């Protein structure tokens, strides 16, 4: 039963779909963390071509089970917990293939922090988001504040965290936090199609794009420029680039079939 709270399904094309299904609210618990940790570990050991993270139920997540915090007897134990929690979205962000988060409904605290660790955030029109840790006197610990600032700016991040308000999908799309807002009807299928398109694409080139942008995040345009030519040149050793060039010259654009090799 517990293992079904997190499941990873892979298709023949290389798309992995990680589903959180811990009713009724998909709350973050120590048990759920262990299951997510195991799932991400499997994706690290056996990389997919793309990953879609989604949830079952009426909400993506109602947040963290506060009893987890109540169980921490000291500052040292709390820090150890927070270090463990932060590691999860960091590892998702480091996966060497495209990652997509699909939010179909209310998406609070840890789930939002995982969402902004992904490359692309898709939201249904009815989705809403919040970092509401202020209600217990805490600040977000899983990287959400700083990743929100990277997408929307420091001022927006301060507002989002300090108010603890819920923000709708349209607002976060305007803030450049959500990449695309999609209709409620058919949202799951649309998110799956979007992720499948990425999985069918030149995933080694996508991984290279993630490397370049990681350098940009660390040191701006100058650092990215120091690495881009080497990263791009490495792609000339891949079958995908060689086949893509041949296909373009022979058949025109958009006809290449990529294999991730």
From TrEMBL:
Record-linked Pfam families: ECH_1
Domain of life, source organism: Bacteria
Molecular function GO labels: isomerase activity
Annotated InterPro entries: ClpP/crotonase-like_dom_sf, Enoyl-CoA_hydra/iso
Keyword list, A-Z: Isomerase
A GO biological-process term: fatty acid beta-oxidation
UniProt-recorded name of the protein: Enoyl-CoA hydratase/isomerase
Organism: Saccharothrix espanaensis (strain ATCC 51144 / DSM 44229 / JCM 9112 / NBRC 15066 / NRRL 15764)
